[in-house]
């Protein structure tokens, strides 16, 4: 499957600067979305593939820093490269503490902007890959039966089959069967790999159900 094209979103209320940045970014192969305001972003939404936002600090209606905080509150992951003609140290510190990639003061070198955008896109690509892998893990975990989830949560703590059997009130053979199904459904090749999956899922040992109430 081919990788989705990287998109750079530029939000700046200066049409001439928007067009200039659009030409620069397209010249190195990026898909570009040029917007005049934060409202335009919310109308168009976040691109599906790797993305980076080039954002003017001073915008009509809502500042770039306010927009950065709003994205964070809405849990919208999007690397930001700030550009401004009126930057100061407190503003820069605030933006970087909130996770900005770079804070460039106009006029800036084209290469400085391109370097920052490449960093942002690499970060977003890694985040998207991690989210996709986590989604697959959640789907696999969702395919487990309640008893298999119990067994998995206990297996990854290092308990032996006979110990798990005693905790759950079932036979050791039953635990082996469930354990085998867990490994198959989670697509885990080893116990350490299964433990890493449990860690990513933030899985904690479940309280064993009684033998009567749990279905094998």
From TrEMBL:
Keyword Nucleotide-binding: no
Record PTM 4-aspartylphosphate, positions in chain: 56
Keywords for the protein's UniProt record, in alphabetical order: DNA-binding, Phosphoprotein, Transcription, Transcription regulation
Pfam families: GerE, Response_reg
SUPFAM superfamilies, A to Z: C-terminal effector domain of the bipartite response regulators, CheY-like
Domain HTH luxR-type: 137-202
SMART domains attached to this UniProt entry: HTH_LUXR (SM00421), REC (SM00448)
InterPro entries xrefs: CheY-like_superfamily, Sig_transdc_resp-reg_C-effctor, Sig_transdc_resp-reg_receiver, Tscrpt_reg_LuxR_C, WH-like_DNA-bd_sf
CDD domains: LuxR_C_like, REC_FixJ
Occurrences of domain Response regulatory (ranges): 7-121
PANTHER family: DNA-BINDING TRANSCRIPTIONAL ACTIVATOR DEVR_DOSR
Protein name stated in the entry: FixJ family two-component response regulator
Source species: Sinorhizobium kostiense
């Amino acid at each position: 499957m081919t990788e989705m094209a990287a998109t750079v979103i530029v939000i700046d209320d200066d049409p001439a600067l928007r067009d200039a940045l659009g030409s620069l970014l397209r010249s190195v192969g990026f898909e570009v979305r040029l917007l005049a305001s934060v409202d335009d972003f919310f109308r168009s939404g976040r691109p599906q593939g790797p993305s980076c936002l080039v954002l003017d600090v001073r915008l009509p209606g809502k500042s770039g820093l306010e927009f950065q905080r709003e994205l964070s509150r809405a849990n919208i992951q999007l690397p930001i490269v700030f550009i401004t003609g009126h930057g100061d140290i407190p503003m820069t510190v605030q933006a970087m503490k909130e996770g900005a990639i770079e804070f460039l003061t106009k006029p800036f070198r084209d290469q400085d902007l391109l370097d920052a955008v490449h960093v942002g896109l690499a970060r977003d690509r890694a985040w998207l890959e991690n989210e996709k892998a986590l989604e697959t893990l959640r789907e696999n975990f969702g395919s487990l039966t309640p008893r298999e989830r119990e067994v998995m949560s206990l297996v990854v703590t290092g308990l032996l089959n006979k110990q798990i059997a005693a905790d759950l009130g079932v036979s050791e053979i039953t635990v082996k069967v469930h354990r085998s199904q867990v490994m198959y459904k989670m697509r885990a090749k080893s116990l350490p790999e299964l433990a890493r999956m449990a860690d990513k899922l933030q899985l904690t040992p479940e309280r064993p159900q009684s033998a009567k109430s749990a279905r094998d």
